[in-house]
Amino acid sequence: MKRAEELNFAALFVRDVPLHAPYFGDVGQIHTEQFKSFSQSLYVDLTEDPNHPPVPIHLGFRIGSNPLIEFIESLKIAGVNHVIINLKYGQRPVEEVIEELGEEVVPHFSCIDWQVI
What we know:
By secondary structure, the protein is an alpha/beta fold. The protein has one domain (2-108). The chain is 26% helix and 17% strand. It has a 4-stranded mixed β-sheet, with helices on one face. β2 (55-57) and β3 form a beta hairpin.
């Protein structure tokens, strides 16, 4: 939360009871062996300046790639498993933004290796 305030985020969603976050220990777990995914949507207007601080827009931020990485990391720590990025309010060409997200943001986050039973 402190880091979110330092970055001037207007809002930060924090889940108080994670569904599947082993690092929270037994206190934060719902009594089930089945993994339950938790998702968060986020409107992003990705700026050309990678260090542009977050500025609130409808349900998201006008933001640079570096603070976006930090924000998504904070969601991950809070127990969010999927972030749905919506580019509806973006000012840059969508193709350019998708390419930048793929090159600069996505590589910072890995997927869980799933085993099909």
